[in-house]
Design a protein that fits this description.
347 residues, alpha+beta
């Protein structure tokens, strides 16, 4: 199988926010020149409008050209491609400035009055090249930072996936082995649940899941754990319909929270308890709450907070990357119960 092509390293200027940023930088240069206290020129509103039109036109031309040539420039080494992009922006500025200077000279406008052709064109080229270089550098660093955040989020999903595999697999296989002779039908169901669970978990770092898939994954996990814990583990689902079952979510958001509820809560109590899972939509947000009885995490010899903290930190980090500040995650122990709530916007 042929290797997939690497993504272009050249920043993408085709997106509207970046195009607006380029136009804003161009207008900023005009404002700075108009406000420069050198006393050499007093700008009129007409000259300011002409300069703004020229700068915005020039910025749009450079952005469109670099957008069209993005993939071609990305095939070159980064240093060479960056130099060519900056040189290309300077050439565009020379051509545009030359046309504008000649046009205003014919019309007799004051915009280019007292400025020679070469000073106007070369000065425009130098300014355009400098602004383009700064903008491309900023966008390049921003893209690398975003890619790093995405890579970290995927690595954390893979780490959760790897943590589930050996611990849960060994316990489940031992349970299935003990059931084979005593209750083959239950053992067969456990094997099927385990197969479905790990088939889903294998894709932890590959794209998004959905609310429905996350709930099904948690159900399979609880089904197998109920065979191990018996009557000590009770589960109560509360689904307040309608729910956005197709809402995209990062993989392994709900199952690790349920696993923490079992390992750090139910399994530590002699009489077990009930895990409550509430799904509801309020104020255009999806709220997922996992609540379970648990011993006091501050009690000597218990590591509830530390054990649950790794999964919660990873889930919170991936939710923040996926939804931004609109996603929230809260957790805490109170009066014998540990509750964790995930809130994400419904897009």
């Amino acid at each position: 199988m042929a290797a997939s092509a690497s993504p272009p390293w050249m920043p993408e200027l085709c997106r509207l926010p970046r195009l607006l940023a380029m136009l804003g930088l161009a207008e900023l240069v005009v404002v700075v020149l108009a406000l420069a206290p050198d006393g050499s020129r007093h700008w009129t509103l007409g000259e300011l409008a002409s300069a703004s039109g020229f700068a915005l036109w020039l910025s749009l031309a450079v952005s469109a050209c670099l957008c069209l040539l993005r993939r071609a420039l990305s095939t070159l080494p980064e240093a060479l491609g960056a130099v060519l992009a900056i040189a290309l922006s300077a050439l565009i500025a020379v051509a545009c400035a030359g046309v504008v200077h000649a046009l205003y000279a014919v019309l007799g406008d004051n915009f280019t009055r007292g400025i020679s052709f070469w000073r106007f064109t070369l000065g425009s080229a130098a300014t355009t090249a400098l602004i383009t270089a700064l903008a491309l550098r900023y966008f390049y660093v921003s893209d690398r930072w975003a890619a790093q955040i995405q890579a970290n989020a995927r690595a954390q999903a893979d780490a959760l996936q790897a943590r589930i595999r050996p611990h849960f697999l060994f316990n489940s296989m031992n349970l299935i082995a003990s059931l084979l002779h005593r209750d083959p039908a239950v053992a067969e169901r456990a094997v099927l649940d385990l197969s479905d669970l790990f088939r889903a978990a294998l894709g932890a770092g590959e794209g998004d899941s959905t609310l429905q898939a996350e709930c099904e994954l948690a159900e399979r996990y609880l089904s197998i754990e109920s065979l191990r814990l018996g009557d000590r583990l009770q589960v109560r689902w509360q689904r307040e319909e309608p729910l956005p079952w197709d809402l995209p979510l990062p993989r392994l958001v709900l199952q690790p929270l349920v696993e923490n509820a079992v390992l750090h809560g139910i399994s530590r109590l002699p009489d077990g308890g009930t895990i409550e899972l509430l799904l509801a939509c309020r104020n255009n947000e999806l709220q997922i709450t996992v609540r379970n009885p648990a011993p006091d995490p501050q009690a000597p010899g218990l590591a509830l907070a530390r054990g649950a903290g790794h999964a919660q930190h990873s889930i919170g980090h991936r939710l923040a990357w996926r939804f931004g500040r609109a996603a929230r995650m809260t957790a805490g122990w109170s009066e014998g119960y540990y509750a964790c709530q995930v809130t994400v916007p419904i897009q």
